[in-house]
Automatic annotation (TrEMBL):
It is found in: Cell membrane. The chain crosses the membrane at residues 276-296, 316-339, 370-391. Belongs to the ABC-4 integral membrane protein family. HrtB subfamily. Residues 276-388 form the ABC3 transporter permease C-terminal domain. It is a multi-pass membrane protein. It comes from Paenibacillus oryzisoli. The complex is composed of two ATP-binding proteins (HrtA), two transmembrane proteins (HrtB) and a solute-binding protein. It comes from the Bacteria. This is Putative hemin transport system permease protein HrtB. PANTHER family: ABC TRANSPORTER PERMEASE, ABC TRANSPORTER, MEMBRANE PROTEIN. InterPro entries: ABC-4/HrtB_transporter (IPR051125), ABC3_permease_C (IPR003838), MacB_PCD (IPR025857). Residues 18-234 form the MacB-like periplasmic core domain. The keyword Transmembrane applies.
Amino acid sequence: MKVISLLWSHIWHRKTLSLLTISSVAITAALVVFLLLCSQGVEQGAEKGYGPFEVTIGAKGSASQLALNTYYHIGAPTGNIPITVLEDVSKNEFVDSAYAMTTGDNYNGFPIVGMEPGYFLTRYGAAKQMAQGKLYSKLGEAIVGSYVASSKGLRVGDTFAGAHGLIQGLEEEEDGEEEEHHHAFTYTVVGILPPLHTSDDRAVFTTLDYAWAIHESQPDKAKEITSIVVKPKSLLGAQSVKTVFAQYNNVQAVYTSKAIADVVNVVDQGTQAVKFVTMICILLAAGSILLSLTAAVHERKRDVALLRLIGKSKYFIWLSLIGEGVILTCIGLMLGLVAGHLGGYVSRDVVFANTGLQIQAGAFVPGESLLIIFTLLIAIIASVGPAIQAYRVDSLQLFRS
């Protein structure tokens, strides 16, 4: 008799309980995998979320809010600052390059960002050529991120109109005059960015002066910008730039890396609740395995007694006792791994569109190896108790009774 055949007959004999055990393990594994994929996305987004721009300058307020709006196009800006600040930053001896940004409008929920064209060369390098078309050079021209182009079906030469606000509102029809004013300004797509694997994939970029033209800004001295991204010449230069411009009235200068790290820490704190729920699921999965094997202890006692009487080795007997829990766990674990990656693949566009978080659903996350080892270890531990109880039976006494 082969041990696999024996184990499979035990599993099939208790179909309902076995299915419950497999399901609990699969759900737990899928939840953990999805959590790991999201955590990896947060880490990768933090690593390449701001490029070489070590200093960010904007209106006073939350540093995290400034960083999120500037580099991830999430949330509202902290306010505006005079364009004269950009002139001072550009003249600073410790600044390698600095680019201004303006925000305030959206296209079907995607932010329209006014940005100086040099930003793309500085952040992504010459290797990142346009997928189609060219960079904008005059008012009304725009380029779109790869995700915006694919989701909205935009091509070079297409035209569109923006809407006021960073998020497409539900009250557009109520605010007819404001919408008509903004929709009167038309953008022409002159280029499509290649996949950059950053939040810039889900943004529309145009000339810096779009906001002034749409909102009928006053003369140059009154013009305002949302933020300035600064590439310093050195780390010492970054400190100097931050110190100098933090002293300006109603202006804050922040270390981008620190602001992003603060955001990541907040996200990590938020995932603690999810991790707690995951631990409960793991305990429930272990309990299901234990329940399944404990419910069959009486039957297993007779099996063990019979195996001993026909001369089967201790190795064979222990495999038959522990193997059932391990097999159920392995089936649930495989299903859970597939379900977790499949869930990440199905939801990746929705997650990216709403948060800018890139989920690499096809990648093997380092934490998955620990998940596999830990889950199998739990299965073995949960199987040992019922196995010992069944193994201690006195074969002759059991058959006499």
